[in-house]
Amino acid sequence: EAQVTQNPRYLITVTGKKLTVTCSQNMNHEYMSWYRQDPGLGLRQIYYSMNVEVTDKGDVPEGYKVSRKEKRNFPLILESPSPNQTSLYFCASRTLGLLYNEQFFGPGTRLTVL
Amino acid sequence: SQQGEEDPQALSIQEGENATMNCSYKTSINNLQWYRQNSGRGLVHLILIRSNEREKHSGRLRVTLDTSKKSSSLLITASRAADTASYFCATADRGSTLGRLYFGRGTQLTVWP
């Protein structure tokens, strides 16, 4: 089954404790991205990657890191989480190109930083 | 902001009625997409309409696009309680070589049995 998986689905942590949210897709997509979703603000892109070893900042990259060592994986790293990073996070992937770029989303990771 | 803006923010209807949601955007686009999100879940792609198309259908969904007004509408006919969800429009800018998507804030649709 074609899918994007994220782990963990729920995480409660404390300020400053490094964490990683994993993302994996099995569709051989070149493009992967991370979003955060907050009430009233919609989805905002954090980082994206067009291919292995190619990453770039989205709209709200501060406090986050990513890496793309393999095509299927795109982990999101919070080196020193803060309470304002409490949010619902989504990983997404799609093929590159403009003609048809439907995005496939993971189930989400609900992060609470105390 | 390049975000699309959905209208209304919330819509409440009875089963069997039609639901119409609108999306306005600011830039020239390559395509516009609609997604659905059940509470706390991931977004699911519903339909894509290209800039050279004016109308598209998929089951009970009908999407229109008016590039002169920079607006789109999503019509769900004969709504069901299971259609209760948030609906987002997303635009792919014409000028972007990446085809990056910009999402609006969504319309919360509630369908009462």
Keyword list:
heterodimer, A: 114 residues, mainly beta, 11 strands, B: 5-stranded antiparallel sheet, 58% strand
Structure description:
The complex is a heterodimer of chains A (114) and B (113). In chain A, the strands form two sheets. In chain A, strands 2, 4, 5, 6, 9, 10 and 11 form a seven-stranded mixed β-sheet that branches. By secondary structure, chain A is mainly beta. Helix content of chain A is 0%, strand content 50%. Chain A is built from no helices and eleven strands. By secondary structure, chain B is mainly β. In chain B, 0% of the residues lie in helices and 58% in strands. In chain B, strands 2, 4, 5, 9, 10 and 11 form a six-stranded mixed β-sheet that branches. In chain B, a hairpin with a 5-residue loop joins strand 4 and strand 5 (43-50). Chain B starts with a strand and ends with a strand.
